[in-house]
Amino acid sequence: MSFMDIQNVVFTYPGRPPVVDGIDWQIEAGEIHCLVGRSGCGKTTLLKLAAGLLRPQSGRILLRDGELVSPGPQIGFMFQAPVLLEWHRVIDNVLLPVSLQRRPDARDRARALALLDTLGLAAHAQHHPRALSGGQQSRVALARALILDPALLLLDEPFAALDAITRSDLQDDLLAMCRQRGTTVLFVTHDIAEAVYLGDRIAVMHGGRIVDALQVGLPTPRTQTLRHGVPFNQYCARVHAAMDQARHAGAQTTTVGAA
Ligand SMILES: Nc1ncnc2c1ncn2[C@@H]1O[C@H](COP(=O)(O)OP(=O)(O)OP(=O)(O)O)[C@@H](O)[C@H]1O
Questions:
Q1: Residue 44 included in any domain
Q2: Which of 49, 125, 132, 241 has its C-alpha lying 20 to 30 A from 4's C-alpha?
Q3: 20 φ, ψ to 5°?
């Protein structure tokens, strides 16, 4: 059984046509899947469905135990803006998911510090978020998403607001931490190169449907030099072409093809 099994899911906001229009998708444990598509095609809505924050009108989303997905400590989130609590120190922001359940103890604090250390932020643990750069704040948000060691991490364009160099550093941090922990990831992005760099598999979404899918056969662990190679650019061109084709075809295709 797959880690996550999305079965023929349809979701409609009131008074609108379906925003997610019959999606089937499976994610195996420990894989990183990227969802790419133009603005408004339904990516965030699908991510919220995968988190159990929205319920589909039809179809269902199962986790590996066969249970319907629901929000809980097994799922971590990270959004486009880091959304840190300004009045809390960095370490307390990282510990927030623990604090929502119980009072953090010494082990929790040690864990939070270890995460901050891995992300190069140990020296900032006692600072407030306003003293940190945008990239550092995003790292705090990543540490917070990982503090409960979630089996599934859902990320909605978490690095979109960062400059290119900081973004590529954070992509490497994310890959290293998720590979080490075996975290399964669903990552939403507009950025095709980001999807190719991070993804084991990419789903191209258009008009509420998955119109193409490809397996990314680049070597792991990924290194930034891959970006200059021919295979990397071929994958990017393939995703570009799928997005263009969907736009021109008006998303008539519902078939999911594998590379
Ligand atoms: N709460 C809501 N109520 C009504 N319509 C909504 C709501 N949230 C999103 N929509 C609509 O659903 C469609 C898909 O939105 P969604 O946020 O899932 O797209 P997206 O692909 O993530 O877009 P972006 O890349 O711009 O974030 C859009 O047309 C949007 O206007």
A1: no
A2: 241
A3: -120, 120
